[in-house]
Structure formats: C-alpha cells, structure tokens
Design a protein that fits this description.
Layout (H helix, E strand, L loop, with lengths): L3 H16 L4 E7 L5 H9 L12 E2 L4 H5 L12 H7 L1 E3 L1 H10 L17 H13 L6 E4 L28 E8 L3 E9 L2
Antiparallel strand pairs: 1-2, 1-6, 3-4, 4-5, 5-6
Length: 191
C-alpha cells in the first residue's frame, strides 16, 4: 500500500500534468457544512485549505482583484442556491472525461484529448485526481451537455460552456463531493 506522501506526490503530479498549462482553477477543501454547496463556496473563496495539504492550481488568477474586495475572483459572488441551480449531476465516468478535457484549449486546439497519442495517460491522470474523492463521490457540472443526460461524452466535442459562473467569455466547471471533501475544478476561456 502506498504511503501517504507517495499518494500526495502521485496526486500532485497528475494534477500538474493535466492542468498546469491551461487557464484553470483546481482546489479542494473539507466538508464542514451539511450542504455541499456551502463547502464549494468556501473553496471558491479560498477560505479553507486542502485537508490533505495537496497542491492547488490557479492559472493566471488576479490576486490584486481578490485582495481588493472580490475574494471569489474570477467567480461571481455566488450563493449556495446559485450553485445548486446552475449545476447538473454527472456520472463518475463522465466526470473523468470532463476533467481530462480541461487539459485542452477552448478553441483552435490542435490536438484535442480525444485524438492525442497520450489520450489514455490524460484520462489516467484525470482518474487519479478524482479517485481521491472515493467510490461514493458524486459529481456536478455546469455544462449544458448534462441537461438531458448524466453521462455525456465530453471527449467527443471541443469544450463548451454552460451555466456561467464568471464574467469571462466562457467557463466550465466540475465539482466532486464526498462525505469528507469537495473538489472544485474550473476551466476558463480567457486566452
């Protein structure tokens, strides 16, 4: 069985390989509230730390804006109801595909995940990142592709936004919720 430090290093490495080169937000936090949406808001506001001390990614975030009175930046000031009404449930398999798709650019992607030589490795990294939330985790997305189906094929198309949670041109989110933790993963079209 891997040691805790080995597990942390494996998770951190998978997260970096997957999302380091794109404009994204990837943070986790503890479950402190009965309502998972309140826990997600705490992560978005950065008022909680990762309970396992793992890495977070916030590509190109403007710290000056946050420090100037907008702690949610780049997200809008949201309520738990905003989150619940703007997100739709998806299966664990769809969540892996969605997170893997965050590794690509929004438009003009020369090599979308579905056609990459390293497709299986990208999917494995996404699975490693989401596996930390356990087999009973539930997943939510802002994608419009999940309006009619809880298992859309996120790799079949280029990234598409859904319910907007920022003032950027487009954004797309994935939420992981377990009994002990939440994960917030967001891709932004801000290039």
């Amino acid at each position: 069985m891997p040691t805790r430090s080995t597990e942390a290093a494996t998770w951190d490495a998978a997260l970096l390989r997957l999302l380091e080169d794109v404009y994204t937000f990837a943070r986790s936090g503890p479950r402190l509230y009965e309502d998972w949406a309140e826990d997600v808001l705490a992560v978005m506001e950065r008022s909680v730390a990762d309970p396992r001390g793992r890495s977070a990614l916030e590509g190109q975030m403007d710290d000056a804006v946050r420090e100037g009175g907008h702690p949610f930046h780049p997200f809008r000031a949201l309520t738990a109801e905003d989150l619940r009404s703007g997100l739709r449930p998806i299966t664990a398999g769809a969540a892996v595909e969605l997170l893997a798709s965050f590794a690509q650019e929004w438009f003009f992607e020369g090599s979308p995940v579905r056609s990459r030589v390293d497709r299986d490795a990208v999917l494995a990294d996404a699975r490693t990142v989401l596996d930390r939330f356990g087999p009973d985790a539930v997943f939510w997305t802002s994608s419009d592709l999940a309006r009619t189906c809880d298992a859309p094929d996120f790799l079949a198309r280029d990234l598409e936004g859904g319910h907007p949670f920022t003032d950027l041109m487009m954004d797309l989110g994935l939420i992981a919720v377990s009994a002990d933790e939440v994960g917030v993963f967001w891709s932004f079209n801000a290039h």
